[in-house]
């Protein structure tokens, strides 16, 4: 509650959050949270040193539901397709760096409009479209409104690259958003435009799920697109990795925690 990045220190809201969190933690049988948010066990141990460390338990990442991906078809694109699905946030997570890197790739390789597509599903603005026009990318960029989750899955599965934009704001350093699990479930290489020191970047690189590039380096973005579309980057479909990050793995550990709390209360 206190580490919520949307709260400002010194405010009355933060004062109340500290009281409520303290009461909640001290009276709870166990405190659990899911890996991938702006939270680490270190915070609880340092904030509540008089409580036993075993009271705090970090669950695995949310993960993906394998059945939802295995049971749907794969979209068959004629052109090489790069897909971004999700929201943008002004001044924080925006598509400008991706568009500039994509423009460099297009200028270098000179593809036709029917050979390459960069598509966005989600919110889009006139400012973003203005950047597309300024970079002469209109024939390559397609934008769509949000679509239901079950309809986006075939599109992700059929894409050659899926894009994650995480920026470089340190407030986002520990986050691993749910978008990553959709991308992993689709088993499509991820182009991550994010500070390489961030948790999500390390997750992607360590598991061979894609290529990470710093948001400020448009040349690296262009090079990464070339590596991925040419097949130079080899996506690793390791069964052990996908088992580890499945939703069922997380639920198994949650069940163990609930069982232990129940047993201790009898």
End-to-end separation in angstroms reads 30 Å
Number of helices: 11
How many independent structural domains? Answer: 2
Mean of residue pLDDT?
A: 90
Could you say which overall geometry the principal axes of the C-alpha atoms support? globular
Percent of residues in helices comes to 40-55%
The arrangement of helices and strands along the chain is HEHEHEHEHEHEHEHEHHH
Please describe the biggest sheet, giving its number of strands, its sense, and whether it closes into a barrel: 6 strands, parallel
Q: CATH class of the largest domain, please?
A: Alpha Beta
Hey, roughly how much beta strand do the residues contain? 15-25%
Give a count of the beta strands, DSSP E runs of length 2 or more.
8
Runs in which pLDDT lies below 50 for 5 or more consecutive residues are none
Coarse structural class? alpha/beta
Architecture per CATH nomenclature, i.e. the level-2 architecture of the largest domain: 3-Layer(aba) Sandwich
Strand and helix layout:
Elements (H helix, E strand, L loop, with lengths): L11 H16 L3 E4 L6 H7 L8 E4 L6 H5 L9 E6 L10 H14 L6 E6 L4 H9 L6 E4 L4 H10 L2 E7 L10 H9 L3 E5 L4 H8 L3 E4 L4 H13 L8 H6 L2 H18 L2
Parallel strand pairs: 1-2, 3-4, 3-6, 4-5, 6-7, 7-8
């Amino acid at each position: 509650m206190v580490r919520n990045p949307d709260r400002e220190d010194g405010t009355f809201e933060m004062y109340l959050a500290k009281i409520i969190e303290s009461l909640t933690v001290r009276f709870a049988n166990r405190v659990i949270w899911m890996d991938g948010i702006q939270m680490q066990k270190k915070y609880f141990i340092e904030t509540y040193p008089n409580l036993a460390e075993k009271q705090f338990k970090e669950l695995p990442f949310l993960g993906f539901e394998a059945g939802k991906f295995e049971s749907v078809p794969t979209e068959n694109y004629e052109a090489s397709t790069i897909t971004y699905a999700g929201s943008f946030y002004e001044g924080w997570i925006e598509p400008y760096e991706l568009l500039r890197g994509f423009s460099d790739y297009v200028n270098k390789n000179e593809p036709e409009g029917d050979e390459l597509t960069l598509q966005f599903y989600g919110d889009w603005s006139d400012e973003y479209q203005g950047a597309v026009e300024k970079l002469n990318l209109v024939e390559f960029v397609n934008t769509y409104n949000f679509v239901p989750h079950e309809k986006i899955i075939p599109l992700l599965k059929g894409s050659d690259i899926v894009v994650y934009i995480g920026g470089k704001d340190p407030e986002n350093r520990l986050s691993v958003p749910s978008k990553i699990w959709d991308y992993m479930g689709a088993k499509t290489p991820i182009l991550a435009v994010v500070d390489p020191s961030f948790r999500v970047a390390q997750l992607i690189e360590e598991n061979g799920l894609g290529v990470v590039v710093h948001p400020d380096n448009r040349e690296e973005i262009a090079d990464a697109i070339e590596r991925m579309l040419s097949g130079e980057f080899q996506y690793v479909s390791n069964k052990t990795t996908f088992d580890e990050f499945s939703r069922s793995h997380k639920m198994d550990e949650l069940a163990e925690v609930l069982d232990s709390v129940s047993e201790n209360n009898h």
